[in-house]
Amino acid sequence: METIKGLQAGDFSAEEITKDCLSEIEEKDAKIKAFVTVTGELAIAEAKKADVLIKNKGAKAWAHRPLLGVPFACKDNFSTKDITTTASSNVLKNYIPPFESTVTTRLRGAGAILLGKTNMDAFAHGSSTETSDFFNTANPWDLKRSPGGSSGGSAAAVAANMCVFAMGSETAGSVRGPASWCGVTGLKPTYGRVSRYGVVAMASSTDSPGPLTKSAADAAKVLQVIAGQDDNDATTSSSKVEKYLDLLEKYSLKGKKIGRPKSYFEIDLEPGVKKLVDESLKTLAGLGATIVDMDLIDPKYSIAVYTILQRSEVSSNLARLDGIRYGNPRTEFGFEAKKRMMLGAYTLSSGYYDAYYAKAQKVRTLLIEDLKKAFSEVDMIAGPTMPCVAMKLGESEKSPMFGELMDVLNEQSSIAGICGISLPCGLAEGLPVGMMLMADMFREEEILGASHVFQKETGYHKDIYSIKF
What we know:
Blueprint: H1 2-9, H2 14-32, E1 35-38, H3 40-57, E2 71-75, H4 102-109, E3 113-118, H5 152-159, E4 165-170, H6 176-182, E5 185-188, E6 208-213, H7 216-226, H8 244-250, E7 257-261, H9 262-265, H10 271-286, E8 290-294, H11 299-317, H12 323-326, H13 335-348, H14 353-375, E9 380-384, H15 402-406, H16 411-416, E10 419-428, E11 431-439, H17 444-458
Parallel strand pairs: 2-3, 2-4, 7-8, 7-9
Antiparallel strand pairs: 1-3, 4-6, 5-6, 5-10, 9-11, 10-11
Helix pairs in contact: 2-3, 7-17, 8-17, 11-13, 11-14
C-alpha cells in the first residue's frame, strides 16, 4: 500500500494525508455525492494520534497496527458506535448505534482512519445506488452514469481518490459490480471469511463484507485485517487466515488452470466488454496460465434462485425494524424495500413455501455442486463482472429486475458462498470494464495472486488517475 510506504518514509504525516482526503471530499463530493456522513473532526483527531505513535515507535508502529494512518470510507450499513448508520434509508436516518461492527472495530484497531460513511441502495436493495432514500451517487468517470450498487458510494469514493480504500458489502454483485463500473478492485471474500456482526442484514445466507481498493495488493492488506473467526457471528469460519500480502509476491500463474465458462460469454454482453475480457484471458495465458473452455449452468437460473432466496431473507430481516426501536415508522420504507418484503412474505407463506422457497433451495444445491465439479478441474474461473459498462442514471427504473439482470454473472458464486474479485481490464468507449476471477471457498490467495500478477503486467488499475472533473 503506497500510503503506508509514504508514511514510513516520512513523505507525509497521517494528518496530512487525512486532510488531503477531506479536501478531495470537499472539492468533489458535491458532484459525486458518495458520502452520507463525513466524520472530519474525528478523522483528524485519529490522524494526530497516529502521528504520535509513528513518532514514538517509528517502523515498529505498524507491527500491531498494519493500517496505521490510512484513511478509509465505509458503506453506511456497517454499524459505527456514536456515528449515524442509516443504510441510506429513511427508517434509519436518525439511528446512532451503541456498538461497533466487527469489521470497523478491526480496521480502526489496526490504525485505519474513518473519513465517513458512504451512500448505497437503501438496505442494499439495488445495483445502481439509485434506490438510496437520500440521493443518487454519480460515477466519477461520467457524472451522468451510475456507479453501480449497492456499494456505489464506496466505489465512487475510491475511484475519485477521496479515500485510500473503502468497505462495501455484497449479497450478489454489490462489491464486484460497482468495482467494475468505477474501475477499481472489488473483493468479495468467501461467505464466513469476514464477520457480518454489526452489518445491517439484507440476505443473511449470502451477505459478505469486502473491500474496494485501488489494487489487489491493497485488497490483500485489508482482508488480512478484517478476516477471521468472530464469536459474535456464528457463521464465521475457523479456517486459517493466510498472510495474503506475503503470498502475492511469491505467486505465479505457471501451472494454474483458469476456466472460461461458455455460458458466461453467451449472454447478451456488450462487444467491448467481451473483447476486453477475452484479451485479458490471453494476457493471463501469456503469464503462464492455461485457459480451459468449460461450462457452468446457464446464469439465468441463478437469477430465479437468488431472487426467491433474497426476497425471503429480506422479508425476515426487515421485520425487526420498527419505529419504537429505531425512531421512524415502517411507512418510511421505500418502494423497493416494500416490494421485496411483500415478495419474500409471499414465497414463505403457507401453500407457496414448497412451490417457491423449498424448490429454490434445491436448485441452489445444484448450483453449488456445479461449481464444486468445476473447481475439481480448474483453479479459478474467469469472466466479465458485468454485461455492460456503467449505465446512465435512470436506466434502472425501466426494469423491475434491473439489479438481478446486471448481477447475473455474480449470482451463482454468491449463492454458493465462494470468493470472487473484479479487477479493471481496460476501457470500452472511455468507461471501465471489469474482469471477474472466482475461486473455491477460502482460496482468496488464488484470485488475489492472479489479480496482482495481472495488474503488475497491465496497469489498468491505474486508469482511475486519468479521471478529470
